[in-house]
Structure formats: C-alpha cells, structure tokens
Amino acid sequence: METATRLLHRAREQFLTEGAVQDELSSVVRPEIMTSWRRSRLSGASTSVHALPQSAEVNRDTPLCRAAEPVLSRLAQQLSGLQAGVLLADRHARILGRWTPETNILPKMDRIASDIGSSGSEELVGTNGIGTIVEDRRPHRVSGAEHYADMLSTFTCVGAPIFNPLSRKFEGVVTMNCDASEASPLLTSLIATTAKEVESRLLDLSSRRERALLDAFLLGSRADRGIAVIGDEVLLAGPHVPPELRALDQATVWQRIRETAKHRHGEPLIVVPGSDGSLVSLTWTPVHLDDKLIGALIEAIPTPAPSGASPAPAVRPPARWAAGADRLPGRSRVWQSVLGRAAELRDSGVPLLILGEPGVGKLELARAMFDERPVSIVDCFAAGPSDTDWARSVGAEAADNDVEDSDAEDNDAVLVLRHIDALAPAVAAALSLRLDELAALPSPPRLVATAQPGSTRADEGMRRLFDQLGVVTIELPPLRDRPEDIPDLVRQLNDKHAALTPVRFSVSALRALACAPWPGNVRQLENLVRGIAATGHAREVTPDLLPHSLGTYATGRSLTKMEQLEMNAILETINATNGNKVEMAKLLGISRSTLYRKMRYFRIDAAHVA
Question: Which helix (DSSP H) or strand (DSSP E) does residue 512 occupy?
C-alpha cells in the first residue's frame, strides 16, 4: 500500500501534467492546496525555479518590522532544536526579516535564497508558506509535495497573516520553515498566535493619530452605546454596534463627514446609503488632533417603527462585573478563589500585580476587572536593553489627561504594564522613577502589571519596581491545576470561535483535554479550539480528531503523584527557559536524553509555550 506522502507526490505530478487530479488521488490533496495549485498554474508560476526571485529593495524601517522583531526573536529561540527558521514578509510577499537559531537549517534556506529581499509571491513560485497566505489571508500549512516548486518539496512552511488591529489592513505574513519530516499540525496554532502577538505590538506602537482615535472610541464606549469611530482607513466598532452601522461603507461615510465638516458649523446629522439601498441617519462628533479632523465618533439614529407595529423589546443593560464568570469561566475551587480576590481588589485603587505562567490569562483578567474603564496597555517587550527614554514616556497620556482635567476628583483610567519581568535593569529603574511621577499626579491612573511567578531579579531597580506594583497580588494557577474547568473553557471558546458552525466535544474528548499537561495553558487550549472550528469538518469532536499527543490521553491512566510532580517540574522549567532544552536539563539536574525521554512520556511539546 502506498504511503500518503507517495500518493501526494503522484497527485502533484498528475496535476502538473494534466492540469487536474483524478478521483482516486483527489482525496489526498487538501481543498485549499488544490485551489492554490490552480492559481499557481493560471499565473504561470514555474515548478523548476532554483531560488526565490529577488525583489526590489525592501524597507525594514516600518512599524511592522519594529513590532515583529522581539516577538519573532523569541519565537525563534522557542523553536531551538527543531531545525527551523522564521521569516517575516510584507503584504507583497517580500521577505523583510529572517531568524534562524538552528544553523542546520541555514544551508537549506540559503540554497533557495530564502532571505531578506527575496519574494515568495505565489505568482512567481506557486504554492508556498508566504505567497499562499498573501493570497488567502488566513493561516496555512504547506508541507512537502504540497509546494508547487520542486525546490520547496523538502520543507514544511507554516504561515499566518498579520493585520493592523485598528485599520484591519493586511500588513504581512509570519512564516516558519522547517524540514518536512519534523513538522507538526499544531504549529499552525503556534504561528497564528505569534501573528496575534505582532498585531498586539502594532497597536502598542501605533501613531498619535491612531491612539487619539482609539482613546475616543474607548471613552465613547463606556456607556455601552452602539457607537463606532471612523477615520481614514480606520474603523473601530464595539460589541453593541447595530448591524446597520457595521454594514456601512467606511470610505463613503468618512467622505461624507469630511464634506460636512468643511462648513463652518458642520451639521451633527448626516444621511448615508445603507448596504441594502436604504438610508441610514447618523449623528457624528468630530475627533481632532492638533486642530485637524482625524476622525469621528458615529452613532446610528433608530428608525421609528411603522404605525401599528409592535414596539421593539427593551434591551437589558449588561450586568456589572462581579466575579467575571462569563468572561473567565471555571467552577474549580482554585479558580473561584482567584475571581473572588479579583472582585475584592477591583475598586481598591492600589497597584496590582497579576502573576502567572504564559498563557494563563493575566491580561484577560485585567481587562475583565476594568471593562467599564479606559484601559491603556503597554508591553514591556517594546523596551530595548538600554531604552530609558521609553520608560520615561510610559503613561504620558494619563499625565496629559490629568493636566487637562485638573478639577476632576477621580481618574478612572487604568494603565496595564505587561511582562515587566522582561525589562533590563536600567530600564526597570527608569520605569520605577516614572511610576513615582505618575503616583504624584492629583488623580493618578490605576496601575496594573503582569509577570511570571518568581521572576523578580536581584538588581535593585527590578526589586523596587516589583515592590511598587505588587502592593496587592493575584496569582493565576496553570491550566493543569484546574482540569475541572476544561469543559467550561471549551464551551466558551467554542462559542467564541465556532459561532457559525458550532461543534460539540464528546465526553471522551473532554476527558483527554482534562488529562493533558497544557504547557501553553489557556492560550494553547484556545488555539486548539480555534483550529478545530476553522476546519469546519466535524460537528462532534472525538479523540481521534484531536492532535495525536492529546488524543492519546483519552484512554490513558491517571498520573501518580510522583509523575505529576515530575511533569510539573518540566513544565515550570519550560517557562523559565523559553523551551531551551539545554538550560532545562541543567535546571532539572538531568541529562538531555533523560529530559527528552520524560517529555515523550508525558507528551509535552515545549513549542506551545510563549
């Protein structure tokens, strides 16, 4: 019997020769790959190219490159031992950056000119992990013979698109290349998560104009009204926005507002065409920066019901956040204790430090605690090792607002500092001084920080920073310590990512998920549910549809106490070393061969840890 790999090679050769794949081989080619092959053939892409073609000179001094640099550097280190390289490409499939911690992969990448300045355009080299994502603008895994060009058939490429969080404009692609024999289907979730991290940093590094529009949106959304903020290539809409507002053509609305604003006293009411040909009435409030119109806060005016029609049912206002049960599900005692402490500290006003392993939901807890208040999020990964100027600028908007509104009795703004344990000593010291300045304001913002447990270093600046921000603390447990919460989490994540095509997880599948170690915690679980929802192949998820490393937990025995302690020790060292197995073995006091054997036994994949 032929292997799946040989059948795929036969299907590819048949397609290249005949332009189609016969029925007996068509099942081995995934639909998205077949679609890409057809595009490649129609565009005239060659299968016999020996290297990626060189593109025009690329510009690397862009917000995308600055946002991606620390994220992809960290990802590359996590992939140590996998013989993998990481690439960043722009929206035109031109490679902007390359990270290769494993020297073994370099000769293979150099041989095909997979480096800065080369193009992975599908029109030029056919189906691949850059150009195909540019065309489809969704995550893809292209493995072995699924590539159109012969030179790429020894690679597996996993890529995901990057979008600007404010404008939703497609910015580029992050792609991981590795040997075809070493690939895992779970890499798609890892790369998709990485793309989301780059998007988050794009938001943090956004321009003054974009920040001003975001601030206007946050302030306008506090009353739970159905408002949106619109600008040139920017549209921000909250969960309460009515369908008729979401369906409007952005360019048309913005042009109408600009035309109306040219009058000395622009009318606060405009009428624009809706998607169904009807007219939609909008009220709008201008957003200015340096006396220039940069956007507008818009709200749809309800259309009166026809005479004799029944009145629309009243919309119940959302309940106040008490323990975060809806956004932070879980019924275990340890999780209920976390939510109870969060409820107690929500209005205390003192600095709060949220501790937990990567992926446990530290930022989501902060957002849930302060969902009715304007929240500014600063990622400390943005600071370089000696970037003290960055530290001095933290909280500048809060300080400006305090000066402008000096008569206000209270400031309900919240400043969240993510990953403070990533700061270099000099930057931590500078940030500590900056927080003293913010605390001296007449109405200072509420300070919240996140970090990994045990991350306080010996240097004085970091200790002082932790003391400032850790007046009160909340420590989130890892997912492996709250397995009884898995069904509730899966239900919430399924509602979030599979709203149009909901799937049901069988009892045995949930049992397998509850027994798994989850080194990437809730983030890893979300990526799994999101990936299953994206395929849309099954209405019921059974263990055989789970990744093999998870499905095998369905019938496995429970771990002994000693085995549980061993597994926890390995997971903790993964987080402490970013998955560096050499350092892990040193910390655990065992050989690398023993570490590999234990990881195989416990089915632990360090690549899932951010």
Answer: helix 507-515
What is residue 119's three-state secondary structure? strand
DSSP single-letter state for residue 383? S
Question: In whole angstroms, what is the distance from residue 552 CA to residue 603 CA?
Answer: 9
CA atoms of 548 and 294, how far apart (whole Å): 51
Q: Which residues of 486-501 are buried (b: 16+ CB within 10 A; e: fewer)?
A: bbbbbebbbeebbeee
Contact between 370 and 347 under an 8 Å Cβ cutoff? The reply is no
Distance CA 393, CA 326 (A): 35
CB 443 within 8 A of CB 410: yes
CA 215 to each of CA 224, 232, 289, 377, 439: distance values in angstroms, whole numbers, following the listed order: 15, 16, 12, 12, 21
> Over 441-495, what HEC string results?
CCCCCEEEEEECCCCCCCCHHHHHHHHHHCCEEEECCCHHHCHHHHHHHHHHHHH
pLDDT, tens only, 508-553: 788 888 888 888 899 989 988 888 887 766 678 888 778 766 655 6
> CA 40, CA 128: separation in Å to the nearest integer?
10
Q: What is the pLDDT of residue 316?
A: 34
- What is the side-by-side order of every strand in the sheet holding 352-355? 375-379, 414-418, 446-451, 352-355, 472-475
**Torsion, Cα of 251, 252, 253, 258 (10° steps):** 80
- Cβ count within 10 A of residue 446: 22
Q: Find the largest Cα–Cα distance for the chain.
A: 81
Tokens 């025009």, residue? 56
